[in-house]
Amino acid sequence: MRRGRRRCRRAADRLDPRSGCFNAGPDGSIGGPLSPTQRTQLESSLSALDAAIAQVQSRQVANGLKQQQVDQVTDQLQSRSDFLETFVADIEDVNIAEAITRLQNDQTALEASYRAFSSIADLSLVRFI
């Protein structure tokens, strides 16, 4: 008997007809008008169910927010992956002749900028006075 009472403390057991707790209440099974004890037991069970539903809803909200974060991170990682694949493909598929020509043009432009900077650096007011 003690075991049955201990098991019947959980709201889920009190509401499950298979557990034996539903019909083993202090006033027996619910078949006609409710006794005050039965009413109290049902009200307390409803309160427990309301609290459980609120907790489940809270967990669903938290789960939804985490899923949204996962989706955002997945999208960001996919974008990075696409960018890096394009970047690597541009390097691997380079035309050697075109790359050499671009390098020579860049070297020529760099040397010209060095000469221009050097001639500007040589200017001073002393030369003109």
UniProtKB/TrEMBL annotation:
Signal peptide: none annotated. One of its GO terms (molecular function) is structural molecule activity. It comes from the Bacteria. Residues 1-38 are annotated as: Disordered. Keywords: Bacterial flagellum. InterPro entries: Flagellin, Flagellin_C. Residues 47-128 form the Flagellin C-terminal domain. Belongs to the bacterial flagellin family. This is Flagellin C-terminal domain-containing protein. It comes from Hankyongella ginsenosidimutans.
